[in-house]
Amino acid sequence: MCQLLGMNCNVPTDIVFSFTGFAHRGGRTDVHKDGWGIAFFEGAGVRLFVDHESAIASPVAELIKRYPIKSTNVIAHIRKATQGHIALENCHPFVRELWGRYWVFAHNGDLKDFRPPLDGAFRPVGNTDSEQAFCYLLQQLRHRFGDVPPAADTLRMAVEELAREIAAHGVFNMMLSDGTTLFAHCSTRLHYIVRQHPFAQAKLSDEDLSVDFSEVTTPNDRVALIVTEPLTTNETWLPFAAGELKVFVDGTPVARP
Fold first, then answer.
1. What confidence tens digit (pLDDT) does each residue in 128-186 have?
2. Is 135 annotated as catalytic?
3. Of 2, 8, 13, 247, which one has the greatest count of Cβ atoms within 10 A?
4. CATH label of the domain that carries residue 220
5. What pTM, to 2 d.p., does this model score?
6. Which of 2, 9, 135, 186 is catalytic?
7. Number of domains in the chain
8. Could you tell me if 192 and 252 are in contact, meaning their C-beta atoms sit under 8 angstroms apart?
């Protein structure tokens, strides 16, 4: 299956270090070589880079590793195709508009017999179960709340309920963000870490590369990273429980209401 990487921060931060290790899993240290993508929120806009080439061989991925785009919310994905052919339109993340802002989504898993009726503005362009799930999720949010976004706690409960409904069809590890909040749902495997003061050195597990975050951060910075498998060997990554939805805002997991 695929792998996911998400970042949620309280200040704009680059993801070069983490993406460097993550990209190696796209054909060098792992088998996820059927495409990749990454989306960065910047203000109300989104920079989206996708490629049907493997992350380890893609010149676009090399650009991302060398170009420190700073963002408070990032979602990245490396693909091992289970449904849908290898093509640009099937590469995650996917982007749609709802309530006057962009939403970004990526999925790791395989959904069986999942063919919900899509009767509104949200339609898949490719032929993956993932994009269909994204369109269904946004469609249901629009049906429930109309043109006015709900309060944060109400939205969380709705996303959690819809994630549980979709996960009944198979594995549904996913990340979803509107540029302020990052939702992460785990069916099988997700891990997270919050980096904050006092910052320390981190060493990648997929590349001989280390960074001392105390040299490139301020004491007020806080960064949450969410990933399928831990990216570093010398940090403590916390596992999600199966069926758990976590919500991250300003670099920290938000407690349930």
1. 999 999 999 999 999 999 999 999 999 999 999 999 999 999 999 999 999 999 999 99
2. no
3. 8
4. 3.60.20.10
5. 0.93
6. 2
7. 1
8. no
